[in-house]
Task: structure prediction
Amino acid sequence: MNALLRRHIGFSRIVARLAAIFGVCLLAVGEGAFAQPLAEGLLPVGSAAVSGFSGVAARPGTSDASGLFIDPAGVSIRVFDLRDLGGPADGRLVTPPKRASIPVGAVGQVFGLAIDAASPPNLYAAATSFFGLPIVGPTGERLHAGAPGARFMEGLFGPAAAGGGPGAIWRVDGTSGAVSLFASTSPDNAGPALGGLAFDAKTKTLYAADRETGFIHAFDPSGHEIGRFDHGVGGRTAAGLAPVAFDPAGRMDVASPAFSPDQPATWGTTRRERLIFGLGVDGDRLYYAVADGLQVWSVAIGANGALGADARLELAVPPGDGPTEISKIVFDARGTMILAERPAPIGAFDFGWMAQEGTGRVLRFAPADPPATGWRPAHGEYAIGFPLAFRNGNGGVAIGPTPGFDGRFDPGSCGGTLWTTGERLRLSGDPATAEALKAKGPEDVDGLQGNAIAALRPANTPPWASWFVDFDDRFGDPNARGHMGDVAMPLACAGAPMRWGWSDWWRVDGFWIGGRWGGGRPFLPPPPPTHRPCGPNEPCQCPPGTSQQHGSQCCPIGKVVGPDGACKSLCAHDPKAPSPAAEYEIQVMCWRGWDMPSDLATFDPDHVTCWDGSKAVEVQGNKLCKRPPGATCPAGFEFGPANAPEALLNWLDASCVPTAAEKVCLQTPSDDGFPTVGPDGKCGVFCPQGSIPMPVEVCCPIGTVAWPDGSCRPPKDRALCPDGKPMIDGKCDRDRQFRDCPDGKPPVNGRCDRDDLRKDCPSNWVKGPNGLCCPPQGIVGAKVECFCTGDRRLVDGVCVGPGEGSYLIPKTPPAVVVPMLPRVCPKGQVKTKSGECCPRGAVAATGACCVGDLKLSRNGRTCVPRHPSAGGQGVVGPAIVGPGIVKPPHVVGPPIVHPPKKVIRPKRPIRVEPAPPPRKVIIHRDRKVTPIIRRRPPDQGQTIR
Result:
């Protein structure tokens, strides 16, 4: 450590010690001189306060993670001036001025942020455990488990002399910038710390969620507690549910060997039925998120800010790709609810992976149309970041004013931009996209994404029509996950009632959508976006300059496009399936009109019940039902006579038969997916494997047509790859998706060097057979494809055995775990309906693989013994529903299957043709990871001490 750095850290500690003695933190410029109060206040309109992990520094003489400690010179909160973003939202990286920086020595690690209604507004920040709970021993050494004399690492919960601790809520004065303790829930909170904050402007009450007790605390403007709300008892009882009381026996103790900073299950967080995180205020009600079932509840706010006794369940969010909690709830001027998810904490010892990647969604819901009550999906979800499935949020979300087309703050706007915290926001696995992003700034950005509040998927996917801001202007930390926190922004809308109208437009993915909220105008519903789906059997109300066009949208097989533009199953309720494969089968059953079975293991295909309660009718060996409500044919098909021989789908009252143009397309088989007729009249594969195009009616600018990728383009403006084939998901090198690595395993994110990838996992996680990271005792979502073994089952994200936790000893044998199947098959083989690889030409119409002692039957429907001595009646695969497309014979429609009634296995093992020699694989970059050593660069703006 050089002399300059020693002097810098020494001075920082002196300032922090003085601040702790006086109970406040003083405003400083740069690193040394005290300053005057901030001009315009701390948070003028057009600025944003953002929380994030303050970083680590390595102790001299150490080379592994045991020498990494919270950097005493790090910054926990930064205030960005977003009034000039330098240009339009085109994927660019913006480096806005930093109005202030609040160091870790003043507040410790914080997540939840809130702004009050003062002028200028004050900022509140809540202590958090989401960046880990590192502990040290009596002599300052890092510990993997609790021990006598253990204590929290310095810099975790703020200065103890100023009242810092796991229950601390800090107040940053909006005029002077002084930092002081506003309130605390300690000593009730021993370590799990706090969740979200919310401020009610009408009663001037600040609400905070306690992660240890599950209480929601209410504080008046002076920081005195005026009441607390117990959802586990009062909230659940009001809704007719069994109460779940707080159990103080579960309190954590860092001096106990049972505590481990590497295992969040030991952190003393309350039971999920009473665990609260995200908070938000709308009208006279406080909305709060419960971890169990990803539920959002609400309760009345009294005249003095105290919470009432009328708690009610508002909605339950469908689960995503991994364990998450709803960490932030905000509302726009129309009463639309926007939710941000925070992936579950990991507790990485090396401060790298703090949360599972690619699982943080940002969702939108709208009030149901009267007379119905509750909520309905309002076009569903935002695309956050470029990696993976565009779900790279870290849990923070806020609504801010809208910049103009030049990126400059518009003082007349209010609420047109959504800002979200996220990780690796500009890092793309697609080479062409990556090159385009590099031209607009560094890629590895952990910070903010700003986009139009109306830019919902499939628009702005990937999120090119966005601005990106890095939290600390340091790039190149490939091992960082979950390092961002919350974001809070003030809004000052001109005019007294707070009802706003649309007055400008955003340019997103080649089409325009409504953009700017104007204060003081009469409230009017926003004009429809240029490109949007229309309701069923309802003509589009297209804006001037646009016209209604016939288009399509890619949906997973078994799902259709709903009136809100989202792909949905026709099931009446969400399937409670034991695996993604089972869920897929259930969706296909619903598409067929079958009633969803309660248990796939006992489902009898000979006794099928239809969606209307009637029994299915057997026609040519197939169980047929009436067409279910909302069912439609895929693009390229139309309704035809019931039980038509060339049908893709059959119902009792209709069939889906190919159009004349589609029949031509089906003559050209494709290994890339399902061929159909494009808007230019040419055949092509427009949807990735596992999905098909579904018809929609959309509004497009006159002279353009709707393409399945969600854009409006001229009919001949077809995006082709160098090989003349259409792009799939914006990518040309489709063959790379199907190449095997030299070890015979499929690539992961386009890479084969699994030994290097293994180093990307958190220190206490393991690398699964498919190259993805799995927790040592649990799973994280379907995409990770980890599973519990033996008699263990998944409970709250952890594999436990009978009698452990909430897993009671089952009365029946546990369900059989489906083994993981390869994602891709070697050349010359195809994937069957069950997910196995089978030689091309050996797949029966039922989906069975006819190899070894089996061969295809004469009609190609089933497998039969290759020699009479083999005996038996052949293998009966999953019964096919509908004859499928049999002309030409090599064309097969989307698999419509249900579980087999009986399987007779061959006597000898099935042989699979060996894979061909591996192709050359391009490895894009070295994945070797070294311990992160964050050194604090000179920070712009003023630093609050």
Observations:
- The chain is about 5% helix and 25% strand.
- Residues 75 and 489 are 19 Å apart (CA to CA).
